[in-house]
Structures are given as structure tokens and as C-alpha cells.
Amino acid sequence: MDEWRAVNSAFADSSTGSRIILTTTIQSVANVCSHGNGYVYQMDNLGEEDSKEVAFPGIRSPELEHGSAALLGKCDGLPLALVSVSDYLKSSVEPTGELCAKLCRDLGSHLKENHGHDSFSDLRKVLLDNYDSLAGYALSCFLYLGIFPRNRPLKRKVVTRRWLAEGYARSESLRDEQDIADENFNKLVDWNIIQPIDTRNNSQVKTCRTHGIMHEFVLHKSLSHRFIMTLSPDHPRAAAHPRAAANANNARHLSVQDGKLIECVASDEELSRVRSLTVFGDAGGAISFVLKCKLIRVLDLEECSDLKDHDLKHICKLWHLKYLSLGGTIHELPRCIDGLHCLETLDLRRTKIQSLPVEAIQLPHLTHLFGNKLMLDKDDLKNVNKMSKLEKFLSGKKSNLQTLAGFVADDSKGFICSKKEDSKGFLQLIMHMYKLRKLKIWCKRVANRDSYMSDLSKAIQKLTKVPIDRHNDCSLSLDFEETDKDFPSQLNLEPCSGGSKYDLRSLKLQGKLLMLPPFVTLLSGLTDLCISSATLTQGLLSALANLGNLLYLKLIADLLEGFEIKHGAFPSLRRLCFQVRSLALAPPPTIEQGALPNLVSLQLLCPDLVVGLSGMDIRHFKHLKEITIDADTTAQERQHWEHAAKKHPNRPRVMLVKTANQIESEELGLGPCDMREKRKRCPAEPSLDDALDSSLKKMRLSESSSWSQAIIHPVMGADTMASSSIAIPLHADESGGWMQQHSRS
């Protein structure tokens, strides 16, 4: 930050109205530089037409368009990559689609080393600067991204759990390994090495992807270091990477993206050193020799399309396996799952498994168990010996389960001994899971409702009750879709004894909700709340105002009855989301001045928004940074929000999001598209902001641009017309380029 301090101190506050524009690829640097009255402008990638204009200036032909499509896809709208391609093509007599296709195949090699006419030197320097700045486990985490296909959405938690299973988040200190994994992930996001697709309610990245050029660079580096081996049509091992082929037995991570290729290499491939196997599509012969991978720790078969139930008997012999993810071709989990002694993560969400053997629950190191409406095996529930062993295992605090997501909680019970009064079911077993931190269950309509509600209340109490001086970081998700309408409103907890309280970090409620369940108002530290119901009543919505510590509130409904947020309500709330199918049948929500004083993000996901939404004046939200609206809103509505954002002192970003036709309670995985770049400069009397947009557009088209943010600082007088606009790279090896200076008289 010394560079920023030097720049900042050079411009005295003389009230002449200048502004400084700095560029950097590091988001945290941009945040520090913009602290106070600065503004961070996200430099977006170029669109398809602009990309063609930069890469092939003045050249158009059907043959070139067809042959260059894959190459432009890898460039992904990055100006510096497109300029490098343009320079390379200029060295040939005539650019053709065939030449573009060849360059596309060899692009990774050009990013690694000089090939005669070095058109990629600037781009290579930017990439190498990023690469050389990483060390230790952060570098391993970076290379690990080469396992996944380009542009494949990657879930943050899936990636970090795999890193943990691989041992890429270890520490000699007492630091938590999950914190180290999160820190490495955040660093890759902060440096724009991986690109966010959507974020969680606490502003953490939920889903991401690797940039086109960055992915090519990561993949080539990983292959050349024999860190991974990729078997796919895009990267034929013997042809494209002969050195890697000769040393394939040293590859630690194997990624199979075309099962047909595996058949021709299985006989001569030594797999004893492989630590992970990831399959996309057909596995081919990969499963048949998986037992050769004696030390394998990660087996990701979630997207494997030809895995069979009987294959699992072989997989369950992999003693060292820590991470197992299965896909939609699996219907049953074998009892020999108890052979996976070291297993930490078992992901069954995409399978058709409905019955879970108790052997899975008794795995001593199992930390995360995910399913889709799982139930304990009914034969196991009737087996006195098995149920006794299970209760003894749980009561002895031998279970390491922290996440239990996707179970159906019905009234089925088993017998711990011959006495009927000692019968226990899933809800009673939860009481003995002492390390549980995340619970997601589906509630059912049952015959013995009183007993069932008592068991459910006790399970919730066990998860939420903590000493009064401690914060509870647990999360709970309850689905009431298959219960009676009045069931949620009668769900309550016993009063807390002295020295304890009910607390929870995150709560999701879905189903038939006429009223807010009474226990919700007892959760003193609740910060994240998501409620999904066909209709959200005024009484339920009014009860939410008592939750003063909420940071995030998401409301999902077909119909939202009158919702008024009064002055002083939700004093801590930073993110508010309305996801409503229609506002036509009810008055829109209104927000009084003085409500939501700390709001940062406002999401209005409804295709028929009334212009301005009655009572919704965003000027009162002093900390507002972003507004998200439904992509299906009218042009008039979009213009309204664009205009409102432009008048706001913070100039919040206005983003469009596509929502699913069927409103769901899960977070959306579709990326927003920024509308700010589409503002047009007025030719008659341009404003300062329009002039800045014009300069930033030039930056985006300049050959020096890379992944970056522009920090705009009004050095003097916010209301004064700037006499000049200056663009300064914050650091050559940080910004990845050498930006132009722009001036205007």
C-alpha cells in the first residue's frame, strides 16, 4: 500500500475538483484505496462483438468465425488475451479459422514459453506474476483447479472439503484447517485467479469458476509439474504432453473427462501414487482399476454417468479414502461402507439412495453427510443389536458428525432393547450427536403428532442451546411441506434454565407457514434467516421485526401480503432479498425512512415490479452498494433503477439475475450481469460520471487491460467538475498492465 500512500499524499486538498483513477487486480487493495469517499468500478470482460473487434480488426468471414469460436471462448473477453491473439495472427500471411484452431490447441504452450514471435509475453508476465506470488499449500490449491473442466461452476465448500481431504490446509500452529482452506480460497478470489459466479448471504463466494485463459495456464502448469493427469479429447495425453505421459506414474490427481480414452491407457498406467480420481461423464475402465490407487483420498463420481451399484463394493475397500461423492446412477449404499474407515465426507445428494444403513452413521471420522430425503434403513431400526451398537457409538461421543443434511424425520423407531418404551428413531439419535453444527431435515405428517413434535422440539433444543456467554455457530434447515398447516406454528421450545440460551447463526424454513414458529423469536443471536412459503402472511412478516440481530433476510413466496418495514426496524440488516412470483395480487412491500440503516444489498427478484416499488426510496440507505432485480423486469423498470442508482451518493451497482420459473428456497447459482457499462455519454454536455465511464471503456479496450478494478477517488469537492481524470496503475505486477493516462479539458 506504499504506492497508494505516495499517490494520495501527492495531491493536496486544494478544492480544484480532480479525480484519480487507479487500477489493480487485487480486490482487497481496491477496497483499502477506496475507503472513505472512493468508488470501486469493476472492469468487466468484453462481450462477443467487442472481442471479435479486438482479436480480428476489420476481418470477417464465415470460415474465420467458425474456426475461432473455441479460441475466443478461452480468451473469455479478456482484452490482454485478445490483443495477444491479434498480434499472433498478424504474424501470419492471412488469419484463418484453421490457424485459430491450431492456436487454440497450443495456447497453453504459448502461455508457458516463447515460441518464436512472442506475442504472448505481456500476458505470460501477468500470469506468472500471479503464479510466483503463491507458495506452499496456496500453490497446491491453485494447481488443483486444473482438475476441473473449463467454465465448470465450482462450489466453494466442495473445493475446500476436497483440499482438506488432500491435506492442502495443514498448519503447524493450532489454527483450524477449515480456516486455512477458506483463507486460500479467498486469496484466489481476491487476486482474481478464480471468478465468483454468485455469493452467499454473508458476501462469501458460493460458486466460482476459473477464467478461460487462467484455466489454460493452470492446466498446463499442473500437467507440466505432473501434479495432475487429465484424460480428455481436449488434452490427449500422449500427443499434447509427452513428458507427462512418460512420467504418468508420478501424477497425484487423475481427471477422466472421456471414458473411452481410459481404455487405451489402463494397461500401462501405474496408479499407485494417485491421491484423487474425478470423473466427468463415462468412467470407462477407470472404476475397474481404482483398487490400484492404494493411497487415494478423494473419489468424486458425482458426474459419472456409468457407475453401477455393484462398483461400490470395490470402492468400499479403499481404506484411506476421505472424500466420496456419488451420482444419479446409484440406488443403494452397501453395508460394507464401514470399510471406509478414514471417510470424512460422504455426498449422496445426487444419488437415488433413500435408505441409509446404520454402518454409514458409525464411520468414526465421518464429518459431513449429505443426502436427498434419506431415511435410516427400516430393517436396521428393527435390529436390536444394531441399534444398541449405534446408540453406544453416539453416546460414547465417538461420532465426529458436524453436518447432517437431507434426512427425513418421520416417526419410525427402533428398539435399543426389548422394552417398547426404549424405542428410538432418527430424532432421538440426533440428541447424541454432540459435534453437530449443521442440520437439514424434512418433517412429515405422522399419526402420533404430539410425540413427534416433542421429539422434534428436543432435537432443536439440543442443537440450539448454549451457555449464555457463548455464541452458537450452528445452522438449521426445516422443511414443513409435508406437514399440516398449523404444525410449524405450534413448534416451540422449553424455557431456558439460568446460565443458558437458545442461539443459532442460520435458519431456513420452507413449507406451509401461516405464522412464524414461536421458537424463532427465542434465537437471540440469529443472523441469517430464509423463509419460503406459498404465501407469507402479514402476521408472520410483522413478527420478523423483533429479530434485531439479523444481517441477512430472504423471503420467498408466490404471494407476499402487505409488508411494511417501519422506522428503526432491522437495525443490523445488511442484505435483504424479496423473491416473489408476483406482486399483482397484493400491495408491494414498503420501507419507511429510517428503516434498514445499515443495508448494503437490496435484491428485488420479481418479474412484475411496480415502478419504484411504493415507498422504496433507496436514497435513505446510506451504505447501499448493490441492487439486484429480476432479469425479466421491463425496460422501464430497469431504467428507473439505473436512474435511482445514479442519483444515490454511493452509485450502487444495478445487476440483473435470472430466477427459476419454480421459486425455490435454495440460493440461485446464476451470475449477475452488470448494467452500468451500458450508460451512454451525452454528446451535448457530458457529466463527470459520463466522462469517467468513457475513459473506463477505453481502458477495457486497451491492450494493457487485464482482470482489474478501477478505484475512482474524488480528491477535491464532490460537486465540482473535475479538471482532469488520471489513471494510474497501482503496481505494474499487481495491475497486470500499464494503464494509459486520460485527460479532459
Automatic annotation (TrEMBL):
Domain Disease resistance protein winged helix: start-end pairs: 147-218
Keywords, ordered alphabetically: Plant defense, Repeat
A single BP term in Gene Ontology: defense response to other organism
Record-linked InterPro entries: Disease_R_plants, LRR_dom_sf, LRR_R13L4/SHOC2-like, P-loop_NTPase, WH-like_DNA-bd_sf, WHD_DRP
GO molecular function, one term: ADP binding
Disease resistance R13L4/SHOC-2-like LRR domain segment(s): 274-653
PANTHER family, per database record: DISEASE RESISTANCE PROTEIN RP, NB-ARC DOMAIN CONTAINING PROTEIN, EXPRESSED
Protein name: NB-ARC domain-containing protein
Protein's organism: Panicum virgatum (Blackwell switchgrass)
